[in-house]
Specification:
Layout: H1 2-19, E1 36-40, E2 52-57, E3 61-63, H2 66-69, E4 71-73, E5 80-85, E6 88-93, E7 102-106, E8 111-113, E9 123-127, E10 135-143, E11 154-159, E12 173-176, E13 182-188, E14 191-198, E15 214-216, E16 221-223, E17 227-234, E18 244-250, E19 253-258, E20 264-269, E21 278-280, E22 286-289, E23 299-306, E24 312-319, E25 333-341, E26 346-353, E27 357-360, E28 365-368, E29 374-376, E30 382-384, E31 390-396, H3 399-402, E32 428-431, E33 436-438, E34 447-450, E35 452-454, E36 460-467, E37 472-478, E38 483-488, E39 492-498, E40 502-509, E41 531-533, E42 543-544, E43 550-557
Parallel strand pairs: 10-17, 25-35, 36-43
Antiparallel strand pairs: 1-2, 2-6, 3-8, 4-7, 5-6, 7-9, 10-13, 11-12, 11-14, 14-15, 14-16, 18-19, 19-22, 20-23, 21-22, 23-24, 25-26, 26-31, 27-33, 28-29, 28-32, 30-31, 32-34, 36-39, 37-38, 37-40, 40-41, 40-42
């Protein structure tokens, strides 16, 4: 009896192991995806009236996130269930299909083999009427500013309507871009359509302008024949209205918090004899106001703020600071850089502060040559930013005084030192203690930093020429997209004093003439302003520079 029980358990275990679908081990790597053997309805079948779709593949399969990967167009949303058994997949629809409509089902990476997860990428088309629509729209999605082609973006198509809204309504025909940004929408009927693309992070087939990148073709597409080579340029633009969310005292300050990042703001007291100091916090949504009137109970102020979409928020509020003593923010200052360029003898520098500056003593800022020699600045050498947290210095300097050449050497100019001993230290930009006083009465400490001397031999030049009849902004940018320099409506220009590295030359067609690139605006159905990159005869956009090089003129045309 005991032997029979053991024998029965062993047989059961072996049967269970045989029933499991497992990937075989060893042998060459399987790179062949499952192939669609048959389907119900059949591909390109007409007059289909069912609510269940079945597919059979030539090998055992597994499902990979089918509700996200399977795209049914015109869209039925998520209103379906997907099951599988060995090599068969079944889609059970929960609602009836529309009459006289051509449907396509794209499985993308939903169906995979058991070994290497090779996707079948199966697709079928069928019609609930007696005709199968056959028109097609294809093209490419690119980033409007960088021209990079994003992969796995959702491309959507909707019948054109004045009431359709990409933020509220899903498109009826859906597909996705491949790794090169290309897309294709097939089996379409003649008509008038609206075409758009977005990275559907939320997986709800709706555009979220706050967190997602998107783009659209502004004009309706009239589809009468196949259309190809369409380009959708995507951008980031939050279309929600700018709002002042909170205005309240916090610790030692009065805080204004907005719903979006700000590009500009102004705080104006109703009493014109008063002046308010404020600073924009690093999150770009918070403005901090400083208490420079400790004896006032409250003050009425006008608040005006704008965002990147030029949406504005205006408020009239009473600013009131806490009566209770609170710890104030620490005050620091520093010289971010100090550079003297040989080719134009221009000394540039920038001093930054963690609080707005109320007063400063220009005579306390100077160029220190040595222990006994200083060169003062003039008031015209200084420029403050809007909230007085950054001070820029631009001064024509005498290089022979700051960096005298060693006439005994034939090498690159060096700092001349005494006849014996090591060379002297390079000149410095410096300011003394209490040169700056903040909005809260803090005084600066003494700070100095060496001036970097940039010679012609250590830098490079790019000469550029623009041919266009439009307003434009010409930008020189790094490979990471950082703008190094820009000029407006100058058709011939030399970008000088460039560090030896790789750059891109970018032409922005300034349609509205505001001197900057503007993204699209869905409300006005305006696409992003056009962007063109310089390309060499081989089509390469990257411009690699070496020291002491001059390239150009590089021609860029629109």
């Amino acid at each position: 009896m005991k032997f029979r029980l053991i024998y029965f358990l062993l047989l059961s275990f072996l049967a269970l192991q045989c029933a499991k679908q497992t990937a075989p081990t060893g042998g060459p790597k399987d790179e062949t995806p499952p192939k669609l053997r048959e389907s119900f309805p059949k591909h390109e079948q007409i007059n289909f009236k069912g609510d269940r779709i079945e597919l059979s593949f030539d090998e055992p399969i597994q499902l990979n996130n089918p509700r996200e990967q399977i795209i049914i167009t015109p869209s039925v949303g998520k209103d379906f269930d997907v099951t599988f058994n060995k090599n068969r997949v079944t889609i059970q629809l929960k609602s009836r299909l529309q009459e006289n409509t051509t449907y396509t089902i794209n499985f993308r990476e939903a169906v995979q083999d058991l070994t290497e997860k090779n996707p079948a990428n199966a697709k079928i088309a069928f019609s609930t009427g007696d005709y199968l629509d056959s028109l097609q729209i294809s093209g490419k999605v690119i980033d409007a500013l960088t021209e990079v082609a994003p992969k796995s973006y959702t491309v959507a198509l909707a019948e054109y309507s004045d009431t359709f809204n990409i933020f509220k309504h899903p498109g009826a025909w859906i597909t996705q871009t491949d790794k090169t940004g290309k897309f294709s929408l097939e089996n379409l009927k003649p008509g008038k359509y609206f075409l758009y693309a977005f990275n559907d992070k939320s997986k709800n087939l709706l555009v979220d302008s706050k967190s997602e990148t998107y783009g659209f073709i502004s004009q309706p597409i009239t589809l009468e024949k196949n259309l190809d080579s369409l380009v959708i340029r995507t951008f980031k633009a939050d279309m929600n209205r700018l709002k002042l969310m909170t205005a309240r005292p916090t610790f030692a300050y009065f805080i204004l918090r907005f719903s979006k990042s700000l590009t500009a703001y102004s705080i104006t007291p109703v009493d014109s004899t008063k002046k308010v100091y404020a600073s924009l916090e690093p999150d770009l949504t918070t403005v901090k106001l400083y208490n420079t009137f400790p004896n006032l109970d409250s003050m009425q102020i006008k608040v005006h703020a704008t965002d990147s979409m030029n949406f504005a928020a205006d408020s009239l509020i009473y600013m009131k600071f806490p009566k209770k003593e609170a710890t104030k923010d620490k005050f620091t200052s520093g010289i971010e850089y100090a550079i003297l360029t040989e080719n134009n003898s221009l000394l540039t520098s920038q001093i930054s502060f963690t609080k707005p500056i109320i007063t400063f003593t220009p005579d306390s800022i100077y160029i220190k040559i040595d222990s006994v020699t200083n060169i003062p600045f003039s008031p015209t050498d200084f420029t403050w930013n809007y909230n007085r947290t950054k001070l820029s210095i631009n001064k024509k300097a005498d290089i022979s005084v700051l960096f005298p050449k060693d006439t005994t050497s034939k090498e690159q100019a060096t700092i001349k030192g005494p006849k014996s001993g090591p060379p002297t230290q390079p000149p410095q930009i410096a300011f003394t203690k209490a040169a700056f006083i903040s909005a809260e009465g803090d005084t600066s400490i003494s700070v100095s930093t060496p001036i970097k001397y940039v010679t012609l031999e250590s830098t490079a030049i790019i000469e550029a020429e623009v041919k266009t009849t439009k307003n434009f902004v010409l930008q020189l940018v790094t490979k990471t997209g950082k703008v190094v320099a820009e000029v407006i409506n100058q058709k011939k220009f030399s970008f000088e004093n460039l560090n030896p590295e790789t750059y891109l030359l970018r032409l922005i067609i300034d349609v509205n003439g505001n001197g900057k690139w503007d993204p699209g605006n869905y409300q006005s159905k305006t696409e992003p302003e056009p962007v063109v990159y310089y390309r060499n005869p081989k089509g390469v956009t990257e411009i690699s520079l070496k020291a002491n090089w001059t390239l150009g003129p590089l021609l860029i045309t629109y």
